[in-house]
Amino acid sequence: MGFFSTNQQDQSNKVAKQLATHADETNKEIESILSRFLKNQEKYDALSDELLVLSKSIKERLSTSESDQLYALVETVYDLQEEYLNTFRVIATLQEKQQIRANAIDDKYKKIAKKASQKYTEARSL
Hints:
mainly alpha; 92% helix; 0% strand
């Protein structure tokens, strides 16, 4: 019969489809996380802007030490935002690399399944 049986061909096709499905599911999950992240970032930006306007209004009524405390808190908020954005960049980079790897693996297993199918067809015709 040859090197490949129907079972091996079916198994190769099944593995290739599973890997493609898993890669697609992972990408969808990552996209969902990034989408939520962007929505939260928009809310955070709006809140930061509101905080800045409010702090300017309050500054006029505060003593120098209270004003310094307020600005220290605002700086802390902006530092946290910067750290948050850096984390987002890392996540986005990882998602992009995951997509590239998933596509490469998907293509590789499709080629393997196609070759296995060709070998099986050749073996059967002998």
